[in-house]
Specification:
CATH topology of the largest domain: Immunoglobulin-like
CATH class of the largest domain: Mainly Beta
CATH architecture of the largest domain: Sandwich
Largest sheet: 8 strands, mixed
Radius of gyration: 22 Å
Helix content: 10-25%
Shape: elongated
Structural class: alpha/beta
Strand content: over 45%
Length: 324
């Protein structure tokens, strides 16, 4: 068994989204983007079940949240339920003596008097610009873990070169973008049942390698520090030795940075293709069905499994398991 690993998981901020049902499409987009950046979102359509007490569940969700995202629109300001949630958020903010309410403006409307002294994220003309304004609240928060790199695109290739699984080459071509401050490099963290050798990165250099509790931490440096908004495409590789020796094996692709457009390609020897396979999502000790599933394909004339993920969830693991 082998897996990619990374930095320790930090406590995720929890956000309740106060909105009108007519604005659901925009709210879903906001929720997806927040989750990409490590924010745990409470959204009524995903959390409520038949028979639930709406008042009790919503009150508890508001109480458990670190922030209340108030989505302001003409439709929202006409809904009594939205006004009640805003009032509850104000009570929470007063009790905690900290910033709880995060206003978001999605169409022209009159901002409620109690919210006029707050800076709001403006989504009216440009969704991406509004999202950037909103995310800055979380990116500077230590609970998010100080992640200032985004993976814009990534291709991971695991090439199993021997029939017994004793030798495999790993390559990752990753396009990073600095989203806050600056970054001098990246720590690639890997583990396997056997040994990992032949580490290499380009462009840049390997500044150091250490092994702790079976995990290899490979500290790499960019040719020059990335500033906010700058990007780099880097190729990292290594060799797995005696790591895939079982009849049942797996690969764990963990999302340690906000990511999108991730492809995992696992190549098998021609004489030993995968017989069965599945993809599951793991968060902590829990496994659940994944929205993304690996598909059988061919690559360089060899049988392969290909997993394509558009916007994988931050800090989630996507595990491809197979028998061969």
């Amino acid at each position: 068994m082998s897996r990619s690993v990374g930095q320790a998981e930090n406590q995720m901020k929890r956000v309740f989204i106060c909105h009108a049902s007519k604005d659901k499409a925009t709210v879903r987009r906001i929720a997806v983007e927040l989750e990409r950046y490590g924010v745990r979102v409470w959204l009524d359509e995903r959390e409520l079940r038949v028979g639930d007490s709406l008042r009790e569940r919503i009150e508890q969700a508001i109480e458990d949240s670190d922030h209340i995202l108030v989505v302001l629109s003409r439709a929202a300001l006409r809904r009594p339920w939205v006004k009640k949630e805003i009032n509850a958020a104000f009570s929470l903010e007063t009790d905690r003596q900290t910033n709880v309410i995060l206003p978001v403006l999605i169409d022209p409307c009159e901002v409620p008097l109690l919210l006029r002294d707050k800076l709001y994220a403006d989504f009216r003309e440009d969704f991406d610009l509004g999202m950037q304004q909103l995310l800055r609240t979380f990116l500077v928060d230590p609970h998010i873990g100080g992640h200032n790199l985004e993976t814009v695109k990534c291709l991971v290739t695991l090439d199993l070169l021997r029939l017994d699984g004793s030798y495999a080459k790993y390559t990752k071509v990753q396009h990073h973008r600095c989203i806050l401050g600056s970054s001098e490099g990246y720590v690639d963290s890997m583990s396997g049942d056997g040994d990992l050798t032949d580490f290499a990165v380009t462009p840049g250099r390997i500044a150091g390698i250490r092994k702790e509790s079976g995990i290899y931490f490979v500290d790499t440096r960019f040719p020059k520090p990335l500033r906010e908004g700058q990007s780099i495409t880097r190729r990292f590789s290594c060799v797995f030795r005696k790591s895939f020796l079982g009849e049942e094996e797996w690969w764990d692709e963990r999302q340690y940075h906000p990511s999108r457009d991730i492809t995992v390609l696992i190549r098998f020897p021609k004489a030993r293709p995968p017989q069965t396979w599945e993809t599951v999502e793991r968060e902590g000790p829990l496994f659940r069905p994944s929205d993304y599933q690996a598909r059988r394909t061919t690559s360089q004339g060899k049988p392969a499994l290909k997993l394509v993920m558009d916007r994988p969830r931050f800090l989630a693991s996507y595990v491809v398991r197979w028998t061969w």
